[in-house]
Amino acid sequence: MTIKDRLGSVAEVGHWADSIPFHYEYTAGIAGEAFLRGLVDGKILAGYCRACEEPSLPARTYCVRCYGAISSFVEVGPAALVRAVTSTRAGEGEQGGVPGGAFAYLTFEGARGGMIHRLLGEAAVGSEVVPRFRPRAERVGSILDIQGFERRS
Question: If you ran DSSP here, which 8-state letter would residue 38 be given?
């Protein structure tokens, strides 16, 4: 059954063009901002819980173990351990410009949690990798300030 069959005529179906004006801002928050500012400086920062004496990624303003406030951040890495790997076949220009490739879940020694990022070159589960940062002048405080992680040479 077509729309015409249901409604009797296509002329009965109408539309209008309009927009909903709104202003949307989302901040990274205290912990996110500390993490992103660290990337500009070529560092990976984790939130540090003084009560549990443990850094955690992603950086948060509270500890997921004891729910205590986190107000300091510590550098982790740069070496990370590949814990899981996946790949995508999306090509350059597809999926909103996201190139295909391999991605990994990475953990850092002594830190709870981890992060997901692009793998550069060959790396398998259990491999030790390090971040390759964009040149300092090109960093803007984005997760993409890290081009990806590659095997330590």
Answer: H
